[in-house]
# Entry
Amino acid sequence: MRWGLRVATRPEVGAGHVLRCLALANAMRDPVTIFTDPGHGWTGKIAAAGCGEVCEPEAGSMAACTTAAQTGAVDAVLIDGYGFQDADIRTVAACVFTAEIDDLLQPPRTAVVINPSADDDAAPYGPTQSLILCGPRYALLGPPYSPAHVRARAAIPSDTVRGVLVSMGARDSADATSMAVDACRDVDRQMPVTVVMGTAATHLPKMRLRAQDDPALTLLVDHYDMASLYLAHDLAIGAGGVSLLERMCCGLPTIAVLQADNQRRNIEATVAAGAVHAVGCLDSTTTVALAEALGVLIDDRERRHTMRDSGLAMVDGNGAHRVAEALDWALRGRLQHA
# Structure
């Protein structure tokens, strides 16, 4: 059996789709071919992860993946991205077993729907013949996160905030990173702050200059070992997508900023569980609001510890293996009854 993973890799969709598909590919027992969008520099990075073959077509859409399904080059397909047409997905589903990752509660179009947000309520999908894997038990995190979770649970949380991590996404075209750093400096000009950005980040040159002028600011670009970085910090300001689930898995309390609508359900569920403090949408959030939230949490040890414990209880780092096992069971069950 060979899986085809069609993942959106356009710069505007961020790195979350790639990261969770790599996590799933790593957990699968069958070989994988990953189909990307053309260009944008992801092919080499995906190949370097060693999770499977990479196919970068000359054009976007589902064409290359559809051809692979129709010719038998792949036996099953998983789709992760927002811009694919329903008709194209149904064409693939008519040829092979198909699954999709969905953050937006869309009507199921495939045999299996994976919604790895922090909200485990599958009721919005309504009556369906699709298998729905919904909630943080299915959070698609990479291999480092399960052992990092064990380490975090065994650690004694700090009574003080020794440093803040700022992680607003690999691209951060809106420059939320600068606002977060401004908030940190409004609270404490000497507090150690670590900023993580991607090579393709729109405002990376600006942050490089800032790091040169601020001895307490550390800038990391394309940092690989995020799990260890989360474990080394006591508080974070970050986006509300895949990286939020990563931080929860490592017991890192987060002030979350809503950057895209697909993050809304994730943030609302984590706030309700007491695992995250949210400051609202990026468009309406201010440096003052971020600084106020940061100051409150720095002074409130008990709340930070509660957020840490709640996050650890929700995400354990084993979701990719659960999803891989469920997909394998569903695929082989279908083949047995074909």
